[in-house]
Structures are given as C-alpha cells and as structure tokens.
Amino acid sequence: MAAAGMGQQWVLVEMVQAFYEAPAYHLILEGILILWIIRLLFSKTYKLQERSDLTPKEKEELIEEWQPEPLVPPVPEDHPALNYNIVSGPPTHIITVNGKECINFASFNFLGLLDNEKVKSAAQASLKKYGVGTCGPRGFYGTFDVHLELEERLAKFMRTEEAIIYSYGFATIASAIPAYSKRGDIVFVDEAACFAIQKGLQASRSNIKLFKHNDMADLERLLKEQETEDQKNPRKARVTRRFIVVEGLYMNTGDVCPLPELIKLKYKYKVRIFLEESLSFGVLGEHGRGITEHFGINIDDIDLISANMENSLASIGGFCCGRSFIIDHQRLSGQGYCFSASLPPLLAAAAIEALNIMEDNPDIFQILRTKCERIHKALQGISGLKVVGESFSPALHLQLEESCGSRENDVKLLKRVVDYCMNSGIALTQARYLEKEEKCLPSPSIRVVVTVEQTEQELDKAALLLKEAAQSVLN
Amino acid sequence: MSLCPKLMITKLSLRPSLVVLIYRMMKSWVPKSPKDFVPLYQDFENFYNRNLYMRIRDSWNRPICSVPGAKVDMMERVSHDYNWTFTYTGRVIKDIINMGSYNYLGFAQKAGTCQEAAAKVLSQYGAGVCSTRQEMGNLDKHEELEKLVARFLGVESAMAYGMGFATNSMNIPALVGKGCLILSDELNHASLVLGARLSGATIRIFKHNNMQSLEKLLKDAIVHGQPRTRRPWKKILILVEGIYSMEGSIVRLPEVIALKKKYKSYLYLDEAHSIGALGPTGRGVVEYFGLSPEDVDVMMGTFTKSFGAAGGYIGGKKELIDYLRTYSHSAVYATSLSPPVVEQIITSMKCIMGEDGTTVGVNCLLYLRSLNTDLS
Q1: Which of A219, A113, A160, A299 is nearest to A291 (CA)?
Q2: Which top EC class applies here (chain A) (predicted)?
Q3: A75 and B326: CB-CB below 8 Å?
Q4: Across the strands, what pairs with B376?
Q5: Does the distance separating the beta carbons of A341 and B310 come in below 8 Å?
C-alpha cells in the first residue's frame, strides 16, 4: 500500500511537471475549451422567443385597442342582498327593524349577554382605563394585560394549556388552518363546512378532499385510499401532514358532527383533528364547553379548537385553544394575529365578564336547550316548510319542502314568508350565501335563532306565525 | 473595497448565524408529537423560530397596561430560561415615552369627547352585534358612519368593515378573479398579498415605487395578453399603499395615476397609515399630492391608526360600493363593527373635519406636520 501511495505521488508530480512544461497556446486552448463546455452545460438548449417581433407602432395600436371590463358589473336595484334591513337601536331581544318593533329571532345572541348590565359595566370600566383602540398589532405594543387575562381565562375554561385571541371571528379559523397546513399536505373536510373554513383551506394551498356531510363511511373510504397511496411512496408519506376539519355544530345545516367516531378514525389513520366550535361554544355541554363536553371526550384528543366570540359571548373576535405546542406556533404564523391590530380592550373585557357569567350560571345552558327543543317540536308539520337541524341546536333552518324550480324564485318566496312575519312582530332573516363562491351551496332557507331571553309565549307565537305565513304564501 | 452597506451588513450578520446553524443542526430537539403521527412542524421550518427568534423574543409582544398615548405603562417581565417562558414580576414601569404605537393624531384617549361618546353608545347598544351585515347586523350607526366616511374622503359612497386586514383579504377577491392581472408593489402588506392570492388572478410584482418597472409590466401585459393562451386580460388592478409601514416611503401617486390612465387599468390604494396623517386636512395621500379622489378607483383605509379605533373601509363610486355590499365576503359572512368602536370613529372623524365646533383636529394635524418637518 505504501508503494501504491508512492506511485500515486509520482503521477501527481509528473502531472504538475507536465503542466509547467506545456506550451502557452496549449494551455490557453484547453482553458477556452473547458469554459465553453461549462457554458454549454448551463445554458438553455433553445431560447424561447420571449419577445415578439412587434414594432413599437404595433404595440401602441394594441394598447389603444385593448378595452378592459368595467371594474365591477352593475348590480340591479332590486337585488335581494343589496337592500339591508336597518336596525335602529341595539339588536337585543326586542329589536326595531325598518321602523317596526319585533321580537328578535335572527341575531346569534344565544345567552342574551348583548345587553347584560354587568357585561356593559365591565366594558365601560375598560373604556375609561384604555380608551377604544389599541393602535398596534400584538407584536408592537398592542398586547394589553386584558388580552393576556382573556387568553388565560379561555384556556382555563376550556381546560386546555393555552389560548390565542384574534380580533375578528372570520379571520380566526381562516388564519389558523394555513398556519399548520401547507402546500402538499392533505385536508379532509366536511362538505357543509362554513365559508371561513373554505377560505382558510384556499389560503393554505393544500390538497382538499371533501367527504359527504357527516358520513363517516365516506371519510373512512377516503382515508383508506390515502393509506394505499402512502404505501406506494412511504418517504413522501412520512412528511405529508394530514388533517380533518369539522365543525361542532354546523352553521349551514344545524347538525352536530359525530365526534367519537372521528376520534377513532384519528388514531386509526393518524390524522389530526381541527374543530370549529363557533356555534357550539357556550351552547353544548353541561357547562357550555362545547361538543367535547357534550360527548364526554377528553379535550386533549382534539388538536385545535377554534371558535368565535361573536355568538354566545356577545363580543367581537375569536380564539383558538389547545396544547401550548400547537397554539404557540400561531403567534408567529397566524396572519390574522401577526399582521393586524389587536382586539379593542373594551371588547376583551366584555368577553371576560361574559365568561364569568357563563361560569356562575351553568343552568342557562339547560334552559337554552329546553327552549330549542320546544320550538323544534312546534315547527314540525308546517306545510311547505321543513325543519333542518338538531333538536338542541339554537340555529335552525327552515327550507322549502319542494323547490319551485329556480333558486331565485325560492329566495323570493322565502322573502315573502319573512316579510309576513316581520310585519306581525317576529324578526327573521334568510340565511345569506355567496352563490358563486361556495363549494357546496346549501338550499335557500330561513334562519331561526333561539335565545334564552325568549319566553315560551314568544316561542309559541313565532311558531304559529310561521305556520300562518307558510299557509298564506305557499298555498 | 466599497461594497454597498446593505450587502456588508448582510454578510457580517450571516457569519455568526452560520455558526449557530451548524451547531444547532447537530443538536436538534423536537417536542414529541403523538406516536406515529407525522410531525406537525418540520425541523427545517421551525429552525428559525427555535434557534434565532427565541434568543431575541423579549423585544416583541411586550404587554402594556394603559392607554397607548404619549406615555405608556408597561408590565415588567423576566425570563429565567432564556426566553422560553416569561414571568411577570407584578411591577409596572410607568410613564415610558411611547414611540411604538400607531396613535398618530392622539385620538386613543381614556377621557374626552371621543371616550364619552363611545361610553354613551356602549351603554345604549352593548359591545357586540351578533349578526352579519346582510342579515340582522346593519345598525343605523353603520349607515351614519358610511355616509360620514364618504363625505370625509370626497367620494360617492363608502362601506366599513370590522377588521383592516380582512378588508383587503376579503374584498380583493370580490373585485378580481381568474383572467385578471394584479400588479403589486414589492413591499406590499401581507393583507394585500393574501387578498391577491385568494382572488385567483395572476400576480406580477414591480420594484418598490419604481415607475419604469410598473410601466414595463403594464406594456408587456397588454401587448402580450395572458401567458400561453394570449387572450387579452379582463382587467388590470394596481395595488399600492399610501405609506409603506416598514419603509416609511410614500407612493409616487401622480405618476401611478398618469400610468393608470394611459394604460386603462384600475388603482387600489391602501391608505392604512396615510389617512388622517398626510395632507393639510388629513384626507390622506391623495390630498397630499393635490389630486382628485375620483382618479383612484378603490380607496381603502383603516381606522386603527389615526382614528384610534378598529376596522377598515373602502370608498369609491356608487356602483363599486353597491357591488361590494352585495358580493363582499365580509358583508355576507362576517360580523359588523361594534357600536362603541363606530362611535369613536364618527367622533374622531368629525373632530378632524372640524365639525365638532372645536379646532382640536386642525391643531393636531398642524402639530403632526410640524413634528415631521422638525425630525426630517
């Protein structure tokens, strides 16, 4: 081996010697050849003609001729979504809509906390201390002690490690999903997921797989297909994250998701679950902790719970809660958290007081559930309208039993029913959707919202009025 | 060796990070995910967060406990484990001069006309709204605000939204879609970038405030049409900001408007920082340059900075606002503005316009301008 080493050394010495002894032109030629080879290796084989051979005059003509579309197409004056109902005064139990006083069956004020005096005085105290706005995002002196307190209280209430607050309900889930799920990851989402979830998924650029609403067999089929795909390419499978996004109480259909089966699927196929609890927070469960309490599931089994504070808590904004390992990531990656001003302190104080009330009066949840069941029963059997939603869901839908042919006509018919009820003192609204943007557009419906403040007489009156309206308009 | 300073600083700052990089790569540690699950964060993605950001994390997210006015009280916090967790000592550091909050005109106050008006509306209306604009969330206060904003800006009509970030990310997709072209400045805010991405239109970036770059892109776009199919573009939207928050530069508005008119495109101006702060009467960058608001197709802004409240608005022609009232994502699916916040905006805007009978607003604007000239 020493001899071979010596031999190699000899060859090296000879090479260096030859290099010194070679004539100059030879070296220069070799150098040019090497540079040419390198250039050929790195240049494109065929330069595509990027520039067309248009003369400047032709370019001017093209620019002259081009006519853009108008910025926005004209909207007809009688478009149903153009003319809003004007509410004069607070949107509480008795609401003045378009000049008429009605009982409110349209605002998501489930626990009646919108005009609660304690909540208002807590907000007043905060207003006197902090003013209205925070004048900055969370990273740049927009973090107030009220925000930290609210996050702690929410985490304690939901029995998770940490919570994070957003200043807008829609932005909560729409920023949370893209923070974890990126291009190349796979998300299994229910067809009836709300628009905010759809926007979050669009922003994440992941592969979306829709499964039929609440159909666990369909979801399992998709998961099995994914498993067979993974076995073909295990290396890719090891880095592809998988998520299931479901809602606790669906806004579009009023159903609950079958959470126990989802947990089983989670551990069988190793997918993470993101739960959107905007409607079920403060409604389901013995203490209002949402669908996990309703089904008696350990909250650590759910990876992320997201909810907005605009329904039961009667404030503005949203929150996500879960393990610190998961939530802390959003403090740098949640777009709606990092790049936006924080929640005004008076709204955070209102939310804290609302939480206090929820913790001190756990019997309101049972009262709400009884009222929901009462109206659900009372609305059965209306000719022409069917009730869509669980019996304990406070946000029901009333859809037409038979469509009249086109969606436009259905919407007009339902508007007449709503107008009849409004003229007689019950404020209702149609569920609004963006028809061209929704992935799975739900049928037109009237939204009926139940709150704890409605008395039994009012509930019966509403049911009776809807029967009359359906009778006069639809028959 | 006369390398430009930026390059020098980048080179010098990379060297120690490289050392940290190699050291940490040899010593990477990940908190355990549940067994057999794909890790939620890839080592590489989370690298910056764990190793570089953690060391200087205490510079951000500092909690304060008073009005974000000229002087602010901060909560003292310490870390005993190199910034992984913080504990609050309970002490409050008082009267720190505040040069970090976006409180340009000083309307973030805990006493005064704005606060009193907001308190009155809060006791009357409550804090929340619990419904969307198209359903039962359109209060008379919102209509009043929108008329006032339209009058303030000098446009036909305006619409207000609950969050400034969401105003961009939800309305740009309503205005443009597939087959349209968006020309966006290099240093645009994350909300504009997100809105442009969600719309599905083609996005092209021009160099920051560089009119030659913008003109070249416009010319090429119209002459060559859409890539590959060569069909003409449906519309072209230019996204610029009034003041760029991270650089402090002001957009070259006269030149942008001249280009926009020459090439028949539409202009979307985001005045988050410039509304209320630029111009002799606080009407923003359009007034600063002495131009007409009719030249800007979509005037967007936020109420967070100069007005001391929260939310955003879009102003423009009546057809534009009618279209947004019908098709904006925010109007259909998101809750409307909270009433006391609306009242704060109305009071502060009237004050700036001088309609409250005092000269407080005018004085604030004059003072802000004099401070600017003193500093520069």
Answers
A1: A299
A2: transferase
A3: yes
A4: none
A5: yes
The answer on B137 and B82 residing in a single domain is no
Q: Which of B141, B142, B260, B273 is catalytic?
A: B273
Compute the distance between CA of residue B265 and CA of residue B218 in angstroms, rounded to an integer: 9
Q: Is residue A106 exposed (0-12), middle (13-18) or buried (19+ Cβ within 10 Å)? A: buried
Q: Say if strands A429-430 and A445-449 run parallel, antiparallel, or are unpaired.
A: antiparallel
Residue of B nearest to A112 (CA): B130
Task: Determine the structural domain holding residue B126 and report its residue range.
Answer: 113-375
Is A344 part of the contact surface with chain B (CB cutoff 8 Å)?
Answer: yes
**Residues B164, B35: one domain?**
no
How close A14 gets to chain B, by Cα (Å)? 40
Asked if A177 and A153 count as a contact pair (C-beta separation under 8 A), the reply is no
Chain A contact probe: residue of B37, B83, B89, B130 with most A CBs at under 10 A: B130
Closest CA–CA distance from residue B326 to any residue of chain A (Å):
5
Q: For residues B87 and B146, state if they share a domain.
A: no
Q: Could you report the per-residue pLDDT of B307-361, keeping only the tens digit for each?
A: 989 999 999 999 999 999 999 999 999 999 999 999 999 999 999 988 877 888 7
Q: Dmax of chain B from CA atoms?
A: 69
**Could you read off the pLDDT tens digit of each residue along chain A, which spans 475 residues?**
555 556 666 688 888 888 788 888 998 999 999 999 999 998 876 666 655 578 888 888 888 888 999 999 999 888 888 888 999 989 999 999 999 999 999 999 999 999 899 999 999 999 999 999 899 999 899 999 999 999 999 999 999 999 999 999 999 999 999 999 999 899 999 999 999 999 999 999 999 999 999 999 999 999 999 999 999 998 888 889 999 999 999 999 999 999 999 999 999 999 999 999 999 999 999 999 999 999 999 999 999 999 999 999 999 999 999 999 899 889 988 999 999 999 999 999 999 999 999 999 999 999 999 999 999 999 998 888 999 999 999 999 999 988 888 888 999 999 999 999 999 999 999 999 998 888 889 999 999 999 999 999 999 999 999 999 998 988 7
Q: Does B86 share its domain with B224?
A: no
Whether residue B130 sits in one domain with residue B273 = yes
**Which ipTM value was assigned to this complex?**
0.88
Which residues 71-90 of A have a C-beta within 8 angstroms of B?
71-75, 79, 81-82, 84-90
Among this protein's residues, is B328 annotated catalytic?
Answer: no
Tell me the domains of chain A and their CATH numbers. 117-360 (3.40.640.10)
Looking at the structure of chain B, the number of domains it has is 2
